[in-house]
Amino acid sequence: MYINRLTDTEQNRSHEANTVATCSETDTAKLVERVAFGDHEAFGEIYSIYLDRIYRYILYQVGERMTAEDLTQEVFLKAWRAIGSYKGQGREFSTWLYRIAHNHVIDSLRARRPSLSLEAEEDEGLQISTDSGDPQQELERSRARKEVLELVSCLPVQQRQMIALRFSDGLDNGEIERITGKSQGAIRVMQMRALATLQKRLVEEGRQ
């Protein structure tokens, strides 16, 4: 059931990612050019487009909402400072931004040993969005997200990253390769090992 939730999430995030690409990637070059000339409003547009995706990616890895929020802000600050050097480099802006997030999270996790634990505050795990037309459905989704975070937190850092990119953000392995610098073969192996670990844990806990 929980593995199915991951695949369901992947499909939803993939749809969101395609929507973002359609709405923003064609205009990103113009926004980046405006930002390079000091246009704060243009960077605000970029921030609005990518905030949720970058935050989810980081949250999957650190497991703590407040820590994820802090790291997300730091990622966008780094992007703001470095955006003048972005010239496409044969990849989309989203890949460049994810690469910054990827490296920043790795540096943060290395500096925060032992591994960060999941936040205990129940209200943070069960927030209800006012945008949902069905509060009960949103409550169930919030519980499912918390359960998935608890499961993913048991994985090694690299496997956690692969699960976050694939299932939280719906990225294909080609884009994950460009973000992480790992081959698609290695990515598939880590994804399979991660899913096998999660499946084993579910069986041991009697949740499947």
Your description of this structure?
The protein is mainly α and 208 residues long. The chain has a single domain (2-115, 141-204), classed as RNA polymerase sigma factor, region 2, helix turn helix motif (Rna Polymerase Sigma Factor, Chain: A), CATH 1.10.1740.10. Helices cover 76% and strands 0% of the residues. The protein has 9 helices and no strands. The chain has helices spanning 2-36, 40-62, 65-82, 93-111, 122-125, 135-152, 157-168, 173-180, 184-204. Helix 1 packs antiparallel against helix 2 (40-62), helix 2 (40-62) crosses helix 3 (65-82) and helix 7 (157-168) packs across helix 9 (184-204).
The gist of it:
This protein has helices at residues 2-36, 40-62, 65-82, 93-111, 122-125, 135-152, 157-168, 173-180, 184-204. It has 208 residues and is mainly alpha-helical.
Give the % helix: over 70%
Q: SS-based structural class? A: mainly alpha
Distance between the termini: 7 Å
Taking pLDDT < 50 over at least 5 consecutive residues as the criterion, the unreliable ranges are 115-132
Please tell me the total number of domains.
1
Q: What is the radius of gyration? A: 17 Å
List the helices and strands and how they pair.
Blueprint: H1 2-36, H2 40-62, H3 65-82, H4 93-111, H5 122-125, H6 135-152, H7 157-168, H8 173-180, H9 184-204
Helix pairs in contact: 1-2, 2-3, 2-4, 2-7, 3-4, 4-8, 7-9
Which features does this protein show?
Rna Polymerase Sigma Factor, Chain: A, globular, mainly alpha, 208 residues
